[in-house]
């Protein structure tokens, strides 16, 4: 996915990918750890995916590109999803996923083969929202990349087809009642046709989302429906002003899931932020030309703000930039 560029930057460093696990709360997260062959511990990029996604849905493409430049990378599955532990399955809980991000940081900071003082957070979509909240709370983070970021739950909900929003809300209430009664979760489709009872039901959602799923991936296109009510109240963008690290916001002008207007409004509050805009939809940025455009900007940002060869400071950013 997205690796059809003639650019050979990713070939500078040989990289090994290791299957690892780290403890998080009452269970564990499964992850891929990429370690480039280098003499000194490398800065490390933590990659977390979006709503209901697993790492198999394209994170390897980003991690290999970064690792080829000499960065260590950790791409993980949230608890209750993919190869990670946690029961019931497909439980999408915002607070638990934020705990998983914190656990990933603790795992890396306990290792001596990565530079724990130069950790970069990379998140896409819902995962970008988690990266924003995590960076706002952790002053040791060196930089943040937020791709097609989920910043405003109300804006995302208002962008839904009203029929979809009503159907999803009804299932969400049923799931909450089910949880109170100790019963199994009531599921809702993560992505579905336009106007359907799915969390992602814009015209480009079903195909765009499911096209990211490779054959044999540990993936189910459903989550516990209770998350819909939480999404409505979840607004990671409100925390952006608290981020002290350099931050890059990759925003899609045709985003049907995380509306660009809301994302731009929040991103411009970053004290040391940069904004890059793309003529793409929410899912197109993950593949083909959209992928290549975005990752070129991400590589430029990361190698400038947190170069592999430590310079004693990774502070080179001033105020937010928006080349549009």
Would you kindly provide a written description of the structure presented here, covering whatever features stand out?
The chain has 324 residues and is of the alpha/beta class. The protein has a domain of 216 residues: Alpha/Beta hydrolase fold, catalytic domain (Rossmann fold, 3-Layer(aba) Sandwich). Helices cover 31% and strands 22% of the residues. The protein has 9 helices and 11 strands. The chain has an 8-stranded mixed beta sheet with strand order 1-2-4-3-5-6-10-11, sandwiched between helices. Strand 3, helix 1 and strand 4 form a beta-alpha-beta unit. The longest helix is centred in the middle third of the chain and has 19 residues. It starts with 14 loop residues before the first strand and ends in a 19-residue tail after the last helix. The N terminus is likely disordered.
Can you describe this structure in just a few lines?
The chain is of the alpha/beta class and 324 residues long. The chain has nine helices and eleven strands.
* Name of the level-1 CATH class of the domain at 9-153 and 235-305: Alpha Beta
Shape: globular
What is the number of strand segments?
11
Question: Going by CATH, what is the homologous superfamily of the domain at 9-153 and 235-305?
Answer: Alpha/Beta hydrolase fold, catalytic domain
Sketch the major β-sheet. 8 strands, mixed
Task: Note the main attributes of this structure.
324 residues; alpha/beta; Rossmann fold; 8-stranded mixed sheet; 3-stranded mixed sheet; 11 strands; 22% strand; disordered N terminus
Layout: helices, strands, pairs:
Layout (H helix, E strand, L loop, with lengths): L14 E10 L2 E10 L5 E7 L10 H9 L4 E5 L17 H16 L4 E11 L1 H12 L5 E5 L5 H6 L3 H19 L6 E5 L6 E3 L4 H6 L11 E3 L2 H7 L13 E6 L7 H8 L5 E6 L9 H18 L19
Parallel strand pairs: 3-4, 3-5, 5-6, 6-10, 7-8, 10-11
Antiparallel strand pairs: 1-2, 2-4, 7-9
Helix pairs in contact: 2-3
């Amino acid at each position: 996915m997205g690796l059809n560029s003639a650019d050979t930057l990713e070939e500078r460093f040989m990289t090994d990918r290791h299957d690892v696990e780290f403890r998080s709360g009452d269970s564990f997260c499964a992850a891929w750890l990429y370690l480039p062959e280098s003499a000194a511990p490398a800065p490390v990029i933590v990659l977390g995916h979006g709503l209901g996604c697993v790492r198999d849905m394209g994170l390897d493409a980003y991690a290999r590109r970064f690792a080829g430049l000499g960065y260590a990378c950790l791409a993980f599955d949230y608890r209750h999803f993919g190869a990670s532990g946690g029961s019931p399955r497909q439980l999408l809980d915002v607070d638990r996923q934020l705990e998983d991000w914190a656990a990933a940081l603790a795992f890396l900071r306990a290792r001596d083969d990565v530079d724990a003082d130069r950790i970069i957070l990379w998140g896409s979509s819902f995962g970008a929202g988690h990266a924003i909240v995590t960076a706002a709370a952790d002053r040791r983070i060196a930089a943040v990349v937020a791709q097609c970021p989920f910043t405003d739950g109300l804006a995302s909900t208002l962008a839904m087809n009203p029929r979809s929003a009503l159907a999803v809300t009804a299932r969400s209430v049923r799931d909450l009642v089910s949880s109170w009664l100790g019963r199994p979760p009531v599921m809702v489709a993560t992505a579905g046709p336009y106007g359907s009872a799915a969390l992602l039901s814009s015209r480009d959602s079903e195909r765009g989302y499911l096209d990211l799923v490779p054959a044999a991936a540990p993936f189910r296109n459903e989550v516990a429906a209770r998350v819909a009510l939480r999404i409505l109240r979840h607004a990671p963008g409100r925390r952006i002003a608290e981020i002290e690290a350099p931050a890059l916001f990759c925003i899609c002008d045709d985003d049907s899931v995380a509306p660009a207007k809301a994302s731009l409004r929040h991103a411009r509050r970053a004290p040391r932020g940069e904004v890059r805009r793309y003529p793409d939809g929410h899912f197109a940025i993950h593949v083909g030309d959209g992928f290549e455009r975005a990752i070129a900007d991400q590589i430029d940002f990361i190698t400038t703000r947190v170069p592999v060869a430590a310079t004693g400071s990774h502070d080179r950013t001033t105020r937010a930039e928006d080349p549009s």
